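Follow-up to my post from last week.
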Amino acid sequence: MGTFVLTDALIQTTTAVADWVLVLPLILALLGAAAALMLRKTANLCFLLAMLVVVAIIACEITLLLRVFESGPLSMTMGKWLPPFGISFVADLFGAGFALAASVVTLVVLVYAEGERGQGVDDNFHAMVLLLLAGVTGSFLTGDLFNLYVWFEVMLIASFGLMVLGGRPLQLDGAVKYGFLNFLATAFFLLALGLLYGLLGTLNMADILRGAPLANPAAIATIAGILLLAFGMKAAAFPLNAWLPASYHTPPAAISALLAGLLTKVGAYALLRSLVVVLPASRDLLEPVLVAIAAATLLIAPLGAIAETNLRRAIGFLVIGGIGSVLAGVAVPSLEGVSGAGLYVFHAMLTMTALYLVAGLIERATGATDTRHMGGLYAASAPLSILFLVLILATAGVPPFLGFWPKLLLLQASLGQGGWSGGLLAGALLINAVLTLIAGSRLWAHVFWRPAPGGATVLPMARGAVWTGFGATAALAALIVAAGLWPNGLFEILAVGAPDMIDPARYVEAVGLAGVAP
Amino acid sequence: MNTIIFRTMAPLIVAIMLVFAVYICLRGHNEPGGGFIGGLIAASAIAILGMANGAEATRRALRFDPLSIAGFGVFIAGLSGLASLFTGSPFMTSIWLYLELGETVVPLSTPMVFDIGVFLVVFGTISAISLGLEADGGEAS
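User reply:
Got it. Predicted complex:
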């Protein structure tokens, strides 16, 4: 033990200003949320501010994505401390791509919500949305497990706030279920972190990557099991999915679209990151569990959607089914499997948001939330019915929409895996696609095709409000169709990003921990 | 609860607590204290004022809406981390300035600005909650 020199623990090189694209999305979202909170009495100004902030975030994230694509993962450790002492932020292609999708979705929802203003979306809306975006962006870009916990809490606060905006009794009911189960999940997450820190003395992901192979495999696998429980709950994987259909239909449509697009996907991403990248040896031990959870989620969720008559609750089950696909990728972490899971998260963020937005438009047009009181909407609005059908096909994974490609990759992965687990997953994926198609087309037939049941009305819509809402949703759907028709860019990103997930050597090197003894 | 003794003493207690809160916040860098605990003390002072004078009068006395104060706190805490953009260091790196005032040296730093931000966040949030609870059946906004 020599004398302690402070500068030994500090980064000596200067940080290029260009590296700040890594933290700017987060800083902008946080500062924007703070500013929106101060300006919340002036909704117009808030909207303008939020739009500007989100556009700036998107610009930063596109720059970040291109940079990571060209020159590998990018890292910055806060406060000039050397990793693992400081908190590292690391962007690889998966993290950066998901962060970009999250802010695009947020932009669409902000525009859509303008059409709903005055209908339960009140003056704290913009601050909460930006805070949620900050939490989601932080989760995707952080390279430290404890920091990930912090962003989970930020997300939880913001989503809890969003869920009760308007304060109807039904919303409070949904928010209590949502809040309680998610608090429980974060408590499990924290428990796992305490154990992991006690075992390894570090929570920096790159540092865990070096330390975990030397630790007791049984202890690490236990921790991975608790993480699977916590993130599975967050992602609404079967059998921990009950909170999602119980809460997502209660707030206004714009809010439930945002929550459906972002929250469960962060849970799925955390599973992918923690099990596939950080603790791969424990993932191998947990593989039978993962296969079972993935298959059960894939098979049971669409059955829930078929049985459900409330439109947004039914869509909630489709969201859960999607989580099963991501879990299938975690269960089969070959190059195709990880690519498929990543692409599915990307696709689900866009598609699930769009589905909820369309559901909001349908609810506004019919004045009902239950499909039993809907019908004949095709005659009233053909574009809306086309939009809904396109999104249903995209969710089920019918070519040429975006949902087809990740399903194809996952199918290839599970068939390539072979054995009982591969066969089970491949079967579950195919049956899930068919069941999702049945559930979706049943919804479509009920809402649009069959003649309106007695008492069902088609409300005249205020023109301006419809155009902002419909326009925003159609733009998002167009993006989904375009990405499905020209998926080459996405596949190029996956070709670089997926190998980095399976062999994170470049990730560790970017953090600056390569070659240092643990 | 709302006796004349309490109402007479409340402003005095509140004034002492507010000064003490600022003191606790500023000494927090190297000694026990800091923005969080200082903010809690200041918010308790506001809660006492609310009990004595009523939530509405306290809100007027604060001039700014408590939640806006909290927002401002987050804002300056974020900005304090952003300052290191101009020194070629990562986010949240501290920058120190030693002001020589006669015989003493006053150290000013970005962590202090951050701590003041934390103070305002805690102060604003807890005040908003306590004033919301003290208002009789009113909406806290």
